[in-house]
Amino acid sequence: MPDATFQQVVGRVKLYCPMAGQFLAEDFVRNAFYRISRERKWSWLIKQGQFLFPLLYNTGTVAVTRGSTIVTGTSTTFTQALVGLQFRTAINNPIYTVQSVQSTTQLTLDTFWGGTTTSGIVPNIYRAYVTVPDDFHSFISVYDPNFNWQLNLNYSQNDLNAVDAQRANVGQAYLLAWLDFTRDYVGQVAQPVQTIGTGSDPATTGTYTGPNNAIFTVQITTAGASGTAVFKWKKDDGTFTTGVTTSTSALTLQDGVQVYFPTATYTLNDVWAIQCIAGSNAGLQRYEVWPHIQNEYVLPYIYEREVFSISDPLATIPRSITTDVLLEGALAEAARWPGPSPDKPNSYYRLELADRHEEKFTRLMYQLEVRDEDLAMQDVMYQSLTGLPFAVFPNIGDTNWLQDHAI
Fold first, then answer.
1. Alpha helices in 259-392 (DSSP H)
2. Residue 63 CB partners (closer than 8 Å, separation 6+)
3. How far is CA 348 from the centre of its chain?
4. Are residues 122 and 209 in the same domain?
5. 195 in the same domain as 83
6. In terms of domains, do 66 and 165 share one?
7. Quick check: is 115 in a domain?
8. 269: left (phi over 0), alpha (psi -120 to 50) or beta
9. pLDDT tens across 74-96, in order?
10. Among 66, 119, 92, 133, CA closest to 285
11. Which residues pair with 245 in a beta bridge?
12. 65 & 178 share domain
C-alpha cells in the first residue's frame, strides 16, 4: 500500500508552504503525479480487456430508403443487442452503425442510407468496429489465442481502402486500423407532460441518445391498471408503435428513452408529451478489425490506460510511488511560486530551493523507474522481432510458418 494518501501529501506541502492553501497545494501534488505518470509506461498503468464479437445477424429481409435512417424489417427479430453493431446489405454499399432499435421490425442507422431505395434484401449485422474503454490511452498488444499471433496495429484506413475498399474480406483478423471517435449522445429525458386528459401519469427514465432534440408522444389506447392498460407511442412526426402493454418496469421506446407506469388506473385516450434534449460527449476511439469477424469470437488486448487524477475520491496512489517523490515534485513548484500578489509574497519562494527540490525529484523518479523496470521489464529489445508469430499484412506468418522456415 502507498505510505500516504493524497490529502496527507497535500497537508505536508501546506506545512512547508502555508501561503499555498488547500487548492493550490492540491494542484502542486496533482502536477507532480502527472509528471511521474508521463515518464514511462508504468506497470500500474497497464490493463487488460477483451473485444467480444457476436454471431452474424442475417434473419429476415429489410427495406431501406435513400436519404432515410430508418430500416424496416420483414420477419426480423431486431433487439437492443444490435445497437452499436454495423449494418450492411452488400459489399457495394457503405457500412453503417445501428444507432437504436425501435421494435423487432424497425431500427435506425447512425446516418442516412446512401444507396438506392430497395426492399427484400437480407441484412448483415455484425461487429466490424470495436470501441476502447473510457480510460484507454494506447494499445500495447491485441492478440488472437486461437491462431497464436498478435494483430498489426500500424495500418490506417487509407491502407485498408487501398487493398479492400469493399471490405469483402471476412474471417480471421490480421489487424486493427484506427477509424474515428464514437458519436456518443448523453441527452436528457424530461418527465411526461399530460396534454390530453387528467388521469394518472406515467414516468420516464434513461439517457437520451438521439442526435437532435425530440418530442415523444404516448397515448393510452386501452384503459386499465398498469400491466393491463395498453398504449402507443411515436417520436416527433413518425408513425405510432402500437399495442404496447403498460408495466411498472421501464419499457424502452427509442434512443434510450424509457417509460414506466406506476401502479394506478390509466384512462383511455390520455396523451403525454416527453421532451428530450440532445447532448453529446467527446466520444471514444473506435477501431476497425480487418478482415471482419462474423462469428462469436474474442480478441484479448493489453493497453496503457490514461493517467488518472489522484485527487478523485475513488483514486489511490499507486503502491510503488512513495510520499517523498510526490512531495519533492510539489515543493519544487511551491518554491517557484512567487505568491498571489507583490504585497503578499510566498515566503517559500526561492528559485535555488526549487532547483534542489527538482534535482531530488528527478533522482527519486529515476529510482522509481528502476524498480518498475525490475517489476515489469520494458526497456529491452530483441534482435529479430519479425521472427515472432505476428500477423503480417497482407501475408500471414504464424507458428506453422515458423516451424517450416529458418529464422
1. 323-336, 351-375
2. 71, 72, 73, 74, 118, 119, 120, 121
3. 44
4. no
5. no
6. yes
7. yes
8. left
9. 999 999 899 999 999 989 999 99
10. 133
11. 230
12. yes
Sequence-distant (≥ 6) Cβ neighbours of residue 44 within 8 angstroms: 318, 319, 320
* pLDDT score, position 318: 87
Q: How confident is the model at residue 283 (pLDDT cuts 50, 70, 90)?
A: confident
Q: Is the peptide bond before 94 cis (omega within 30 degrees of 0)?
A: no
How many domains does the structure of the chain reveal? Answer: 3
Q: Is 106 helix (H, G, I), strand (E, B) or coil?
A: strand
Residue-number span of the structural domain to which 366 is assigned:
6-38+315-375
HSE-up of 378 (CA within 13 Å, CB side)? 16
Specify if 156 maps to a domain.
yes
| Residue 401 resides in a domain | no
Q: What angle do CA 397, 400, 406 make, to 5 degrees?
A: 75
Grid cell locating 401: 510458418
For residue 51, which amino acid is it? F
Co-location of 64 and 137 in the same domain: yes
pLDDT at res. 380: 65
User: Coil, helix or strand for 156?
Assistant: coil
At a CB cut-off of 8 Å and minimum separation 6, what does 261 contact? Answer: 200, 202, 203, 226, 229, 246, 247, 248
Residues 105, 195: one domain? no
Q: Show the cell assigned to 352.
A: 535555488
- Kindly state whether residues 330 and 293 are assigned to the same domain: no
Question: The C-alpha cell of 398 is what?
Answer: 504464424
Same domain assignment for residues 80 and 174: yes
Measured in whole angstroms, how far is the alpha carbon of residue 20 from the centre of its chain? 37
Residue pLDDT, tens place only, 8-42: 999 999 999 999 999 999 999 999 999 999 888 89
* Domain assignment of residue 102, yes or no: yes
